[in-house]
Give the backbone structure.
Amino acid sequence: MTQLLTSINNDHDALNTYILRMADNGLILGQRLCEWCANAPVLEEETALMNTSLDLFGQARNWLNYAVDRDQRLQDCDAITMLRDERSYLNLLICEQDNGHFADTMARHYLFDVWHRLTLEELCHSHDETIAAIAAKSVLEVRYHEQRSRNWVLRLGDGTQLSHERMQTAINNIWPYVAEMFDQDQLEMELMAQGIAADQTIIAKQWHDLVAQTLIEATLQTPPESYNQMGGKQGLHTESLGIMLAEMQSLYRAHPGATW
Amino acid sequence: MKHIDLFNPVSLIGTDRGREFDYHGCTPSVDEVWQLLDLVPDPEIPVISVVDLGIVRDVRLNNDSWQVDITPTYSGCPATDFIASEIEQALTRAGIDAKIKTVLAPAWSSTWISTKGRQAMLASNIVPPLHDLDTLSCPNCGSAQVKQQNQFGSTACKALYTCQSCLEPFDYFKTI
């Protein structure tokens, strides 16, 4: 019998750290979206949110499988998802923020979707063949997500007075987590120099142009520059993540190695 | 101890397809294996085969052992593992020992759906993927007065529409 792991820590090489950052974004945002199951405003939205979540989980699984292939100590996709503590998760902070109301969810989703799509488009040209293959597969799905979340930002922003106010507040509230998406640490700079990681300086410019256009069209204001919260990619998270992981991992941790 | 899998979905679907081929004790040609795989239905759209859907990418014989490459339609498609086991079962029943390998590149595209597959989809009220969404019409009455109800539908690969003329809801297979 193989020994059951009880936890997996941060002890990855540079490439696996980068792969896990990509994986965790999908995993954590996908899990957040699942919280809308049986709570969405209408049935169609629920289907859409769950389908989006499914895409993100599928993409995360592809990234995780690659990380596991490169480092056997990680065991498998389930173990690495269920046995890492908060400090070992490497997702962007924007992905873990609470769902709030529907405008909060859609504001968060749109700002992330634009970044996600632009990053995946860059990664399609990565010198790492597997990264390029996963990105090429994912980008087709993420374009669709972006189309939908953009439509909601437009509809709610340029909607009633109440929906406009709520969408503006939602954009303002999520804005402090935007800058982290473009923040590149030493590890990413080195991978970028090798032609593996995406260049976030180019992406930042495109992102700001696209989002500014959408916000104008939605009659919304771009929030002014202010304090930016960082740290997710290094494992320093906001309060929301621990609570989510406690729920997500409880079954697996109570019955280690259980299958059905 | 190995548990008996009472809930094996294969026994629930109970497809008999594959039994009309028997290659026990002999080696089929590559074409024959493709023909056999063309009888394995897609679990979500059972009117078309996994070959019609374009998810079987390659069939080849490496030193007495067959390899079948498949690719998922969507990254999160929950049917991918099931399809792999359906293919394996159909081949095993026919006496073909094969390994199923999932490949990611090149990414699956809805343009890989065969003409036969597109016709079968349409016949079961699912509009196959279109280049131009403006040409979308109701599969039931042909009316162009259709309304999107949801960008997503019953599965990751479909979107939900309603015909404004005959009021029938129908699925549209998304273009990717």
Summary: Chain B has two domains: 9-102, 125-173. The first helix of chain B runs from residue 9 to 13.
